[in-house]
Design a protein that fits this description.
Blueprint (H helix, E strand, L loop, with lengths): L5 H10 L13 E4 L15 E4 L6 H14 L4 E6 L8 E5 L12 H27 L2 H9 L5 H14 L6 H5 L6 H18 L1 E3 L6 E3 L15
Antiparallel strand pairs: 1-2, 2-3, 3-4, 5-6
């Protein structure tokens, strides 16, 4: 199974609307989880979280006294939630007012966001031109290019499946390593649609492309009716 890269996750989180902290009603920050396990050793389960870094937030202000009175330790907590569940809130322990602030996705992250958004915009514009000019080779190149944003590559895969009626495109699509589950699924669907449009399939013995109605493979000579 292919998995999302950390950059894929950041791209998705940046595009997501930031939730408001339920305690102070201020916009939460994107926070990069540090490369270490926490508590049970299993980690947070996501490379980025939404965290409220408002020092006037009620849980953060009251947390110092609460934790000291109950555990005799100087610490507090900040409100947090996972991007996958933006309506479910929990608390992140901190041991100083600056705790965790180094992992905030700040101006550099904003610049990255703008760069990603601009790259997506440019990619979609290029794909639109390719659609008009029926430039399937360029669409394929963008689909296979790891430097293109994932959303652009998925759109390119969808276009290949919807437009292409030439089986020569199947092999480069099918045997490329994508490293992203959604992109892999889009590529598999594209191959399926091209086969349907061309009335073809793969020989189960030699994997060469043959007519869907063929009873004998023209490449390996195997009987396909068995």
């Amino acid at each position: 199974m292919t998995m999302e890269t950390k950059n894929d996750v950041l791209e998705r989180v940046i595009e997501q609307k930031k939730p408001l902290c339920p305690h102070c009603n201020l916009e939460m920050s994107i926070w990069e989880v540090p490369p270490m396990s926490f508590s049970d050793g299993l980690g947070w389960g996501a490379p980025y979280l939404f965290v409220c870094f408002n020092d006037e937030c009620p849980p953060f202000k009251a947390g110092w006294d609460h934790i000291y009175e109950n555990y005799a330790y100087r610490a507090s907590y900040r409100c947090m939630c996972e991007p996958a569940s933006p309506d479910k809130f929990d608390f992140l322990p901190v041991f100083s007012a600056e705790g965790g602030s180094n992992q905030i996705v700040d101006e550099n992250g904003v610049n990255s966001q703008k760069a990603i958004e601009e790259s997506i915009k440019t990619g979609f514009s290029t794909l639109a031109d390719c659609y008009v000019n029926k430039d399937f080779v360029k669409i394929l190149q963008m689909m296979l290019d790891p430097s293109e944003p994932t959303r652009v590559r998925i759109k390119a895969a969808q276009m290949m499946g919807d437009l292409v009626d030439e089986t020569e495109f199947i092999e480069p699509i099918k045997f490329h390593k994508y490293g992203n589950q959604k992109l892999q699924e889009a590529a598999d669907e594209a191959v399926k649609k091209i086969h349907e449009r061309c009335f073809t399939r793969e020989c189960p013995y030699c994997a060469e492309i043959i007519k869907k109605r063929a009873k004998v493979c023209k490449h390996c000579g195997k009987d396909l009716t068995e």
